[in-house]
Specification:
heterodimer; A: 285 residues; MetI-like fold; two-stranded antiparallel ribbon; 15 helices; 69% helix; globular; B: 295 residues; mainly alpha; 13 helices; 2% strand
C-alpha cells in the first residue's frame, strides 16, 4: 500500500463484497430452487429466497430420473455426467498428449516441412469448430463417428494453444540437459520421457484445468453429433429440459441438474487454482 | 519461429512420427472441413439435394443483400460492444479494488473466479431462470418497480438478458488478467507519483491505466472473439435467437440456416465470412503482441 487511506480501503472492500454478491447471486438462486418442489417455484410469487426441504428428493429425481407432475418422464442425469466426464477427460488428456509430442518435434528436431506444419497448427487457432460446423459435421458423419465418444472428442483434440505453451516452455529448458543425457547415452525418446515430461508437470497441470473445462462445457458440437440420448453430455441435456415453457418445466430438477453440471468443473478450477491462474495467464500471453 | 535450440536430435523419421497425431487431426477435422466450407460457399443445391451447381459468388451476393443477415451482423456488433465494454469495466473495477486491499485479496479472487468453470449454456439457463417472466425472481422485482420485463416479447429485454449472462460468465477471465496486469506494474512508479502528490484517482488515469493498455487491448480482442464464438450456447439456451430474430447472432444464424433451414450453401458462405473476421481479429492481436515485445 502506498499511503494510508482507510476510507478508500473500506470502499474497496464494499465494492468487492458487492461484486462477489452479484456474481454469486445466480448460484444461490440455483441452489435454492434445487431444494424446493416444482410447485413451490411456480406458485409462490416471488419464490422464496431461502432453501426449501425438498433437497434430497430433487437430487434423487435429477440423478436417477422419474415422473414429472405432468406425467412426462424426466431423464436421469447420472448417465449424462458419465458422458461429460469421459469426454472432458479424453479431450484434456488427448490435447496434452498430442501437443507435448508435436511441441517436442518442433523444438528439438529440424526436418523438411517443419515451418509448414507449424503454421498449419497455428492457423487452427482461428478456425474454432463453431465457425465451420456444417462441413465438420459432414466429415464426422462420413467417418461414421456420429453418436460415439470418438465423434464427441477427436475433432476437438487438436490444440494450437497447448502446442504453443509447451513449445515456449521447452525453449526455456537448458541445452545442457540434452547434452548431459546424451553423454549418459539417452536417445530422444528417453530424454522426452525422463527429463522433459517431468519438467513440464506444472504446465501440464495448468493446461489440464483449462482443457478439462473446455471439454466439459462443450455445447454446440455435442448438439450436432449426438442424437442418441445415451450420448448426451449434461451441459446439452439440461437445455432439452427447459424447452417446454415456464409452466411445464420442472425447474427444481433443472436447477439441480445445473448444480450437478457446475460442481465438477468448479472443483477442478478451485482445487487447482494456483496452477490454473498461472497457466491461463501464461498460455494466452 | 525466431528462437531456435542450439542442440538438436538427429532422426529422419522420429519428428514425423511425433507430429503425426496432431497433423492427422488438423488435416481431417480442420483443413478438410474449412476447404469444404469454401467449396460449398460457391455451390448451390436444389431443395431435394439432388443436383448441385457452381454459382460463383452468388451465395455471398445473396448474403449481403439479405436484410436478416445484415440485421444479424448488427445484432452481433451491438452484442459484442456491450459485452466487451461492460465486462471490461466491471472486471477492471474489481481488479483495481482487489489489488488495493491487502487482506483477503486471494479470498476475493477465489470467490470471483468460479464462473470461469460454468458452461455458457448453463449460464444461459441460470439467467433465464432469474428473468423468466412468470416465475423469475428478478423479473418479479423489476415488475414491482414498474419495469415491464418480458424478454419473450421485447427484443431489447432479450438482448439485455444475454448481455448479462455473457458478462457474468466472462468476468472471472477478465478479472484474472487485469489482476495479473496490475500486479506486474512496478510499485516504485506508483510510490514516486504519490510522493509527487498525485492522488489515487489521478495515479490510476496517468500511470496505471496506460501501463495496463496491452492487457486491456488483449482482453478486448479475446472478448470480441468470445462473443462471436462461445456465446452461441448462451443465446440458444436463453432466447433461441428470439423474439423474432432480435438476438440471432452470426454463429446462431450459421447453425440455424445450416441445420434447421438446410441452406448449406448459404450457411457455408456465412462460415467463410466469419472465418475471415476471425483471421483479421487474430492478425490484429498478433501484430499488436509483436509490437508489445519491443517495449
Amino acid at each position: 500500500m502506498v499511503e494510508r487511506r482507510p476510507g478508500l480501503n473500506v470502499l474497496a472492500h464494499l465494492i468487492l463484497i458487492l461484486g462477489v454478491a452479484i456474481v454469486a447471486f445466480p448460484l444461490w438462486m440455483t441452489f435454492v430452487a434445487s431444494t424446493q418442489t416444482a410447485e413451490q417455484i411456480v406458485q409462490n410469487r416471488p419464490m422464496s429466497l431461502l432453501p426449501g426441504d425438498n433437497l434430497v428428493e430433487t437430487y434423487r429425481v435429477a440423478l436417477f430420473g422419474g415422473q414429472s407432475n405432468y406425467g412426462s418422464a424426466i431423464a436421469p442425469v447420472l448417465p449424462m455426467l458419465k458422458v461429460s466426464l469421459i469426454s472432458a477427460l479424453v479431450i484434456a488428456v488427448g490435447k496434452i498428449a498430442i501437443s507435448l509430442l508435436s511441441a517436442f518435434a518442433f523444438v528439438y528436431f529440424r526436418f523438411p516441412g517443419r515451418s509448414l506444419c507449424f503454421w498449419m497448427v497455428f492457423v487452427t487457432l482461428m478456425l474454432p469448430v463453431e465457425v465451420r460446423i456444417g462441413p465438420t459435421y459432414e466429415v464426422v458423419s462420413n467417418l461414421g463417428m456420429l453418436n460415439t465418444y470418438a465423434g464427441l472428442t477427436v475433432p476437438l483434440i487438436a490444440s494450437a494453444t497447448a502446442t504453443f505453451l509447451f513449445r515456449q516452455f521447452f525453449l526455456t529448458v537448458p541445452d545442457e540437459l540434452v547434452e548431459a543425457s546424451r553423454i549418459d547415452g539417452a536417445g530422444p525418446i528417453r530424454f522426452f520421457r525422463d527429463v522433459l515430461v517431468p519438467l513440464s508437470a506444472t504446465s501440464i497441470a495448468a493446461l489440464f484445468v483449462i482443457q478439462f473445462i473446455y471439454g466439459w462445457n462443450q455445447y454446440l458440437w455435442p448438439l450436432l453429433v449426438t442424437t442418441d440420448e445415451s450420448r448426451y453430455p449434461i451441459v446439452m441435456g439440461i437445455k432439452r429440459m427447459i424447452s417446454g415453457g415456464d409452466a411445464a418445466t420442472e425447474w427444481n430438477v433443472v436447477m439441480a441438474t445445473a448444480m450437478l453440471a457446475m460442481i465438477p468443473p468448479a472443483l477442478v478450477v478451485l482445487g487447482m487454482q494456483k496452477w490454473f491462474v498461472k497457466g491461463l495467464v501464461d498460455a494466452e500471453k | 519461429m525466431a528462437i531456435e535450440k542450439r542442440v538438436r536430435f538427429q532422426s529422419r523419421w522420429l519428428p514425423y512420427a511425433l507430429i503425426a497425431p496432431q497433423m492427422a487431426i488438423v488435416l481431417v477435422f480442420f483443413f478438410w472441413p474449412a476447404g469444404q466450407a469454401l467449396w460449398q460457399s460457391v455451390l448451390s443445391q436444389d431443395a431435394f439435394g439432388t443436383s448441385t451447381e457452381f454459382v460463383g459468388l452468388e451465395n455471398f451476393e445473396r448474403l449481403f443483400s439479405d436484410a436478416t443477415y445484415l440485421a444479424s451482423f448488427y445484432t452481433t456488433a451491438v452484442f459484442s460492444v456491450l459485452v466487451a465494454v461492460i465486462g471490461l469495466v466491471l472486471a477492471l473495477l474489481l481488479a483495481v479494488m482487489a489489488d488495493r486491499v491487502m487482506q483477503g485479496s486471494s479470498l476475493y479472487r477465489t470467490l470471483l473466479i468460479w464462473p470461469y468453470a460454468v458452461a455458457p449454456a448453463i449460464a444461459g439457463v441460470l439467467w433465464l431462470f432469474m428473468f423468466a417472466p412468470s416465475i423469475g425472481i428478478v423479473s418479479h422485482a423489476l415488475n414491482a418497480l414498474g419495469f415491464d420485463w418480458n424478454h419473450l416479447l421485447d427484443g431489447r429485454d432479450a438482448m439485455a438478458l444475454i448481455v448479462m449472462a455473457a458478462v457474468w460468465k466472462q468476468i472471472s477471465y477478465n478479472f484474472l488478467f487485469f489482476l495479473a496486469g496490475l500486479q506486474s506494474i512496478p510499485k516504485s512508479l506508483i510510490e514516486a507519483a504519490a510522493i509527487d502528490g498525485a492522488r489515487p484517482w489521478r495515479r490510476f488515469w496517468t500511470i496505471v491505466f496506460p501501463l495496463l493498455s496491452p492487457t486491456t487491448f488483449f482482453l478486448l480482442v479475446i472478448n470480441v472473439v468470445y462473443v462471436f464464438i462461445d456465446t452461441f450456447a448462451i443465446v440458444d439456451a436463453a432466447t433461441q435467437g428470439g423474439p423474432g430474430k432480435d438476438t440471432a447472432i452470426l454463429v446462431y444464424k450459421i447453425y440455424y440456416d445450416g441445420f434447421k433451414a438446410m441452406d448449406l450453401g448459404g450457411s457455408a458462405a456465412q462460415s467463410v465470412v466469419l472465418m475471415v473476421i476471425l483471421v483479421a481479429l487474430t492478425a490484429i492481436q498478433f501484430r499488436y503482441v509483436e509490437r508489445k515485445v519491443q517495449y
